[in-house]
Amino acid sequence: MRLKTAYTIPDIPHAEHPRPQAERKHWLCLNGTWKLQKLDIQKNVAFDGEILVPFSPETLNSGLDEDFVLQSGETLVYTRSFTLDNSLLLGVTLLHFGAVDSVCEVYCNGEKVGKHRGGFTPFTMDITHVVKSGENQLKIVCADEATRDHGARGKQSDNRGGIWYTPQSGIWQTVWIESMPKNYIRDLRITPNAENKTVRISSLSQGETQTITVYDGEKTILQAEYEKEITLSYDFTLWSPENPKLYDFTITNQSGDEVKSYFGVRSFGKTHDKNGIARLTLNGKPYFFNGVLDQGYWSDGMLTYPCDEAAIDELQMLKDMGFNTVRKHIKLEPMRWYYHCDRLGLVVWQDFVNGGGEYKFTHVAAFPFLGFHHRDDDYRYFARENEGGRYEFMQMTDEIIDNLYNVVSIGVWVPFNEGWGQFDSAKITEYVREKDPTRIIDSVSGWHDQGVDKTELRSLHTYYTPLKVPKDSRPVVLSEFGGYSMKCEGHVFDESKEFGYKKFNDPEKLATALGVLYRQKLLPLIKKGLCGCIYTQVSDVEEEINGLVTYDRKVIKIPVKIMRAINDDIAAEANKVE
Description:
Layout: E1 27-29, E2 32-39, E3 45-53, E4 75-84, E5 92-97, E6 100-101, E7 103-108, E8 111-117, E9 123-126, E10 134-143, E11 170-171, E12 175-180, E13 186-193, E14 198-204, E15 210-216, E16 219-226, E17 229-233, E18 247-253, E19 258-263, E20 268-272, E21 278-282, E22 285-286, E23 289-294, H1 308-320, E24 325-328, H2 335-344, E25 347-351, H3 361-369, H4 387-404, E26 410-414, E27 416-417, H5 425-435, E28 440-441, E29 444-445, E30 458-462, E31 476-482, E32 484-486, E33 502-504, H6 507-528, E34 530-536, H7 560-574
Parallel strand pairs: 23-24, 23-34, 24-25, 25-26, 26-28, 27-29, 30-31, 31-34, 32-33
Antiparallel strand pairs: 1-12, 2-3, 2-4, 4-10, 5-9, 5-12, 6-11, 7-8, 7-10, 13-14, 14-17, 15-16, 15-18, 18-19, 20-21, 21-22
Helix pairs in contact: 1-2, 6-7
């Protein structure tokens, strides 16, 4: 049953600027009502109607019928007109997509301007040569074979159920246009250093001088000129969940282009405490990352949250509960979601999106549970024989790091989870480290650890066995645990099916059990070397009912004050680590 959240969807959803770290004055949101056709395998029209972008046709918020399904070999065709004036024809006009699942071709005024593969990463197409003043026509042709052809699919499955969710297709993040001079500011890269209280800014503008102005609130604190790169020194206040200090800045060039952005000064790393135990650090000091697993699914929008307010409300709830970390599980969010984590103060552990062939339960779950781990250069064992699927994963790795590099709150990259589509993790860890040496890498979250010298963390998933901290030269994190479930009548996806790791039918019993789990079982492990924990999970999702809130976000199962008191006790113990 599709459930409606309490949020009202406007005629133009997600109308806020999609990139708070690269904001220009001249832009146009293309969300709203589009025409949509579904073509069957023979290219006959099987559906002809309208859809509310950026919601996928399988979702309640799209306005389409509940039974909409895109079968293998079928195609979605989106069309709409849009009007441009001279402010959007300044020299270069770019068309941006937040995400389209999973393959699309893009046509503007009848001419093909590009294609993209990969259903979770943003992409941009230059349409300068085809757009004109006045009315223009846009057509997006989409196919979605990711659940069938080894592509990145995340938690989507044609055989949904349990921890696997209903697949969706087509446009599911904001579509927008921006315009700038021919010589515009590009490739903005922000690298803070908490130890030196500096931030390195680099960007390209074809040889022109660029001027950067940094603000603390409304006060200008720095101004300088540079060509390609500059390092700014100042007594910057360091960013942390306890004090998420951000600094706004603008960059302008001689051609008149201007980009508004922001940064926070922080560093993620590793050290050893006074007892020689490996620890994770924030800004050079041991820090305990106390977080919650976030699937990022919503009852009426699935991968797409209803509105900016919904994302803010949920993240603020987690802050109020005393969490300092969110693990974004097997998906990417719009850039505005990361902006809210930056400004509210929540560290993000960012998963990559899995792909590959059919998962074999015995290989990826049962055998590791019994203590057996397998070499991940055995592609057949992990259903990674398809070379194209492995290539797509590496391409997506580049896109994820390049697009999210500037996000202040991201502290950990998570390439693989529980062996799902895992391959060559040691090599990929090195590749990620070379591309971004400023963050920690949880190479293989959960199982199939490839060795002390090849990965950066010892990452455990523990649901049915006692919590413990094994001896290891690496920092040890509990990257999944808990999963306590409670069914809330009238707020569940399927009244006849439910999935959770430990079931409760009474809110008080659930709250008491969580207190025991954290205070009696987890808290003593911090002294022994536990560096972080990720509770499963933020919300119910379809048959999974192990969320802190229901799928429709209308019922908070654990009172905020109770969860906050538990997390305050965890923080107090963590603060004793030196």
